[in-house]
Design goal:
The protein has helices at 10-13, 29-39, 58-75, 88-95, 104-116, 133-148, 173-184, 195-200, 205-208, 221-231, 240-256, 269-283, 285-294; strands spanning 2-4, 17-24, 46-52, 80-84, 100-103, 163-168, 188-193, 214-218, 262-263. It is of the alpha/beta class. Strand 2 (17-24), helix 2 and strand 3 (46-52) form a beta-alpha-beta unit.
Length: 296
Amino acid sequence: MCFIYGGDMSETNNNSKRTVFFISESTGITAETLGMSLLSQFPQIEFTYIQRPFIDSVDKVKSLVAEINEMAQSESFRPLVFATMPEENINHLLQQAKCHYYEVFESFLDKIGNDLKAEPVFESGLSHGLVNEKVYDSRIDALNFTLKHDDAMVLKTIGDADVIIIGLSRSGKTPTSLYLALKFGIKAANYPITEDDFQRNKLPTVLLDNHEKLFATKIKAKRLHQIREKRMPNSSYAALSTCKEEIKKVQDLYTQYNLIPMDVTSQSIEELAAQIVRKLHKTGTLKKKLHSWENK
């Protein structure tokens, strides 16, 4: 990887907060995905992320370099920059910025080319094409299924789901379901546990019939209160006392059905999805799905 270092070691030792830029001539998804994966190994540092996609001209890169330099000056340490910049002239200009620069392609392409006995083309945007039509179609099918089965809108066919995420309202079920569909082609339904379920003191039969597909969520009361306040300020629905009461009731239901919930209080969507995918790997569900794609 192309590492351009510019500060002394004291720069990193005295800061628990750092700014990170993700830069690309296209969407920036590749730089962001790899950069965030690497930075997750430094949980002691709080990162502020800035996305700058479509940096595809000299004028744009000069403006960006000025922004990075200003950030370095104001914060007294150099930002980290993860970039996918195949074009040499733009890449060279970014290397001159006051930052720690990590060019993703430069890290690997030469070695991979040597191993493959082939020359990389160093062209922009190739990673964003339709690489595997079967996988793409399966992901679209999964997304349509997930949207149809969001918030228990359709219970009749919920048993066709690969995963059913259950939990209190506003506990991250919908975004996690959508991420599973888009990223992995997993048909993910979700069901919000409400006062009706508490009054019956049981979950719907269709969920119990698919017990092995259930993934329960839990969340701390203060965090749930904060999320609900943004949606419905000063409502009984968002009140801290309501959140505490619902959390106790839902835990009783989980205990009744021997469900061990995932704590979503401080986990990202990606982390929650990773937990679910790991379990699917263990049960063989994901392997069967991949096999079905290959044989379509």
